[in-house]
Amino acid sequence: MRTSQNRVMDCLKPCSASYVPLSPISFLEIAASVYSDRVSIIYGDTRYSWRQTHDRCLKLASALSQLEVGSNDVVAAVAPNVPALYELHFGVPMAGAVLCALNTRLDAAMLATLLEQLQAKTIFVDYQFLEAVLQALEIVSFAKTKPLTLVLIPKSDHETSSTAERLPPGSLNYNRLLDLGRADFQIVRPEDECNPISVNYTSGSTGKPKGVVYSHRAAYLNSIAGIFRYDMSKKTVFLWTVDMFRCNGWCLTWAMAALGGTNICTRLVTAKAIFKAISLHKVTHFCGAPALLNFISEAPFEDQLQLDHKVEIIVAGALPPTQVLTKIDKLGFNISHGYGMSEALGPVTVRPWKHDAAAKVELVEGNHNLVMEEIDVKDPVTMASVPPDGKTIGEVMLRGNTMMSGYFNDLKATQKAFKGGWFRTGDLGIRHPDGGYIQLKDRACDAIVSGGEIISTIEVEAVVVGHPMVMEAAVVGKPDDLLGETPCAFVKLKERCSVSSEEIVKFCMKRLPHHMAPKTVIFGNLPVNSTGKVQKFVLREKAKAIGNLAN
Amino acid sequence: MRTSQNRVMDCLKPCSASYVPLSPISFLEIAASVYSDRVSIIYGDTRYSWRQTHDRCLKLASALSQLEVGSNDVVAAVAPNVPALYELHFGVPMAGAVLCALNTRLDAAMLATLLEQLQAKTIFVDYQFLEAVLQALEIVSFAKTKPLTLVLIPKSDHETSSTAERLPPGSLNYNRLLDLGRADFQIVRPEDECNPISVNYTSGSTGKPKGVVYSHRAAYLNSIAGIFRYDMSKKTVFLWTVDMFRCNGWCLTWAMAALGGTNICTRLVTAKAIFKAISLHKVTHFCGAPALLNFISEAPFEDQLQLDHKVEIIVAGALPPTQVLTKIDKLGFNISHGYGMSEALGPVTVRPWKHDAAAKVELVEGNHNLVMEEIDVKDPVTMASVPPDGKTIGEVMLRGNTMMSGYFNDLKATQKAFKGGWFRTGDLGIRHPDGGYIQLKDRACDAIVSGGEIISTIEVEAVVVGHPMVMEAAVVGKPDDLLGETPCAFVKLKERCSVSSEEIVKFCMKRLPHHMAPKTVIFGNLPVNSTGKVQKFVLREKAKAIGNLAN
Fold first, then answer.
1. CATH number of the domain that A114 lies in?
2. Same domain, A208 and A305
3. Where would one find the signal peptide in this protein (chains A, B) (predicted)?
4. How close, in Å, is residue B198 to chain A by CA atoms?
């Protein structure tokens, strides 16, 4: 007997009319048809329409396929935010391949390690970074046994013959390569939307960089979610200040095609370039590391500009001091603060920065978080959610469709990260009673355990930077025979300022429970990685060395 | 030997941290956590927060599951746009079941046919429509052999005991049913995102209504796409003028939860109710059939209101005359015009109406069409795209992830609709050279073939309604021995107007190629279906009868 269940199911087999594997490739195809004449990219004197960008990406895909780059091959790129790197974000997946845009600040040795890991047959390299890549290729072993193609991205979009003599045989010029491509190329769409579209390396602040694999599905959904998250519209003019090699530019490479907005590419991110782009192109959004805010705030007066339209800056990472934020706010910028990581394809949540909120520690609000399924704070052993009591510390965990597929060629690390069916961020947090807001307390590996108490270094740092002479501060645990660890503050003072370590300690004692106040204060510059994150593992080593000296 | 391909694939198996079947259920869960205290629904004196709506839907799901409603069972509902019907949009899928909201204007016989087809064990009925449903249940046969539960939605949200004596044994009151539900119910999420979430019947303007099955995936993606399409934001206050039984309220039932916006429910859609809601609740959006525009334009002066904020009206169907549109535009409303159908989950494309565009025939622009993969005009036999020459007629075809899964229990109709891997809309259109815009020419079944030429009845109608005395017009083919068919115009004149059929014919002759001008003109009211669409099949019968009389 047929039940109603069978009946409903009768007609349900997805077919090509009703099911298309989700992929950001679709965004470019729709943009070419719907927004065909609108400006897609501005880069110096170069301007493309969405139709042109589509056609260039199609030819790129065709040329790659002629080079026998195909299904799931990794194509590496070492380039700044130039149109070629934007085009690779579509052209590589349209050939069925996987894009890995590498950090341009890596040295030859690290580049070699990653290229070896990726087994990238094809490497796109901007002329500025050619030397480092050539050095890296001297080191790698797979390049000697396998045919390898180097594609040089020249300074200008019209140049077809530069520095050819320095390139290994078989190398190509990017613009020449495009000429090889056929305009009638049949796009290789992913058979399964969970297939990889890209690999993004973590900055490796806690160890060696890990290759984070993104799927077409996750990239598609995160692009759409990003439009909400960053309050974007068809009128968005996006200035490329965030590196495209960071989570594929927070997936905004693809999102901009979905919107049919305009990309402003720039080789160099300086305050001058930012202000010029704002006034020339009416930029509406830019984003990146908080260092951007320092750039703008410290720009010479003649470079600064009072804004005549709304400009959104979204930053992810530790915010600079309130004075900096207030100054930028007064220039007319809207600042938002994001929380995220490479594994979650960039910022997961974003919230507007407000004057009155500056004193508070970062809140993770599920704002505009349309596609990430759940954000929770859990006991990492029992996996129970912590009570929303504003004090029980747990680990921030995420799950949802805008999550990485896993780590490149590292099943063990993937399984560890996804243990229990959630992505373990390694961040410690608490839940507040009102609406269950999450407040970050520390990185699990940074927190100090002193006399059995967990001390949030973020909270101590917030107090230290409150001292009027302090520019920046980072707090780590210093080994202590009695208490296990004690807080040790590394402090960078403002220019022409001077203060004793005793005064800093006293200042903190007044404002914090005694066990949380730093017992040691060390003055100097703070070591940062390529993202601008303070390298606490370096400071921990220093604190340990000092401890040993003292003993 | 391991290739790079294996390596990338190593870490790619989706797990519960990185893959969650897409379902609108997620929107309600996120709304309850992120927008917990914001107002979800206003209905008269009743107000709910998103937390409360979530809890009520959860209890509804729990109660349904206690009634043994489960995986893929169809739950039917016959109700106006009251909170209960909104809650059913989440509660039913959260129990794993499939919602079918039926047209409240169906008579008992048609209701019986559809209930029988659906084999719906559980029927929610609003007190206003109880009589029709009770009559329908007298007719159906499956109700006699299977246990059936009728759930009465009373007039007020607090009423728990009304008209109980008229209900069959085993019937329940909606508010009582919610009380049975457990707040700790475990949501039954779809195992596969392509599983059905709802069935929506077509209005059946061309034949008997067909049950269109929507998947969780399509509903989820169309909800998100709708936010762009209708230019919505977190601040959206949505007035329920479109029936929730039409494509699940164009999927805006679910989209409103994704936004955390506010739903204004109303039992009766009148101009007075619309203006009252706008002034009381600062409504930002409402939508539905073009009849809405006539409502507003014809509202008594004392009911009308000069708007002090932006209000978007989106209508889908044949637009009323320019005078009506201009009047509404002057009141301060923004009018947008959508093109779509039940099979595409509602409007596929939406474009703003402009004064100067009123003379043109509807353009299907891919505006905000983020998730529908492709819209094309094709030769229905060869499946080749028509050239963008502004004249070659083809059939408008669609494919993408916001398409129905198929027709309920009708594999043959599904296969016919999806033949060749595209959904065949049955609409005729052409492509324009500029950006390939699509212009609708006619329904394939409405077009007139006269002396071998295809005549677009839409184009003839546009000319006829241009006559200053004409209010509405519909043109159909009248059988003709010589030419096959000739155009026959059915015309409704404006009040206190009078004109001869000869004059209408002459008026058209001046403005159209002679073969396109109507040869016959008949005055009177036009028959419309429940959506307000003119029933051309009725007019064709009339035209045929006249033809026979004449012969």
1. 3.40.50.12780
2. yes
3. none
4. 10
B35 in a structural domain? no
Same structural domain for residues A344 and A223? yes
Q: Helices (DSSP H) in A38-159: which residue ranges? A: 50-66, 83-94, 108-118, 130-139, 142-145
Cα–Cα distance measured from residue B274 to residue B297, given in angstroms and rounded to the nearest whole number = 12
| Residue B358: CA count within 13 A, CB half-sphere | 15
Confidence check: pLDDT of B10 > 60:
no
Cα–Cα distance, A33 to A260 (Å, whole number):
10
Quote the CA–CA distance of B469 and B473 in Å, as a whole number: 11
CATH number at residue A529: 3.30.300.30
- The pLDDT, as a whole number, for residue A360 is 44
pLDDT at B159 over 90: no
B207 band by pLDDT with thresholds 50, 70 and 90: low
Residue ranges making up the domain that contains A500: 455-550
Euclidean distance between CA atoms A123 and A105, whole angstroms: 16
pLDDT(A164) > 60: no
Reduced DSSP (H G I as helix, E B as strand, rest coil) percent helix, strand, coil of chain B, to 5: 35, 25, 40
| Summary mean pLDDT of chain B | 88
DSSP code for B105: T
- C-alpha pair distances (Å), A492 with each of A408, A489, A501, B23: 37, 10, 12, 50
How far is residue A339's CA from residue A365's CA, in Å, rounded to a whole number?
Answer: 9
Per-residue model confidence (pLDDT) at position B454: 78
* pLDDT at residue B360 in the model: 44
Domain end residue (candidates: A367, A398, A413): A367
Q: Cβ contact (<8 Å) for B14 and A405?
A: yes
Query: Using 50, 70 and 90 to split pLDDT, how confident is the model at A116?
Result: very high
* Other CB atoms within 10 A of residue A105 CB: 14
Specify the number of domains making up chain B: 3
B344 touches A at CB < 8 Å:
no
- Check whether B362 has a pLDDT greater than 80: no
Q: Do A414 and B11 touch (CB under 8 A)?
A: yes
Instruction: Say how many C-beta atoms besides its own lie within 10 A of residue A478's C-beta.
Output: 26
> Is A403–B18 a contact, with Cβ atoms under 8 angstroms apart?
yes
- Restricting to B residues 234-293, those with a Cβ less than 8 Å away from any Cβ of A are 234, 258
Can you name the residues that pair with A534 across neighbouring β-strands? A528
Q: Å from B71 to nearest chain A CA? A: 8
In sequence order, which residues have a C-beta less than 8 Å from that of residue A333 and are 6 or more positions away? A296, A307, A311, A312, A313
A71-84 residue pLDDT tens: 889 999 999 999 99
Residues B104, B161, single domain; the answer is: yes
Cβ distance B409 to A10 less than 8 Å, yes or no, reads yes
pLDDT grade for A453, boundaries at 50, 70 and 90: confident
Q: Count contacts between A and B (CB, < 8 Å).
A: 202
| Res. B261: pLDDT tops 90 | yes
Q: B380 and B518: one domain? A: no
Of residues B426 and A307, which shows the higher confidence score?
B426
pLDDT of residue B4: 47
Q: CB within 8 A of A377, min separation 6: which ones?
A: A385, A386, A394, A395, A396, A397, A429, A430, A431, A438
- List of residues 6+ apart from A273 with CB closer than 8 A: A266
Please, what sign has the CA dihedral across residues A241, A243, A248, A254?
Answer: positive
Q: Are strands B423-431 and B394-399 parallel, antiparallel or unpaired?
A: antiparallel
Examine the domain organization and report whether B205 and B112 are in the same domain: yes
Phi first, then psi: give them for residue B470, nearest 5 degrees: -90, 130
Residues of B in contact with A374 (CB under 8 A): 29
**Across the interface, do A120 and B414 touch by the CB < 8 Å criterion?**
no
Does the distance separating the beta carbons of B4 and A410 come in below 8 Å? Answer: no
Pairing of strands B98-101, B46-49: unpaired
pLDDT: which is higher, A5 or A476: A476
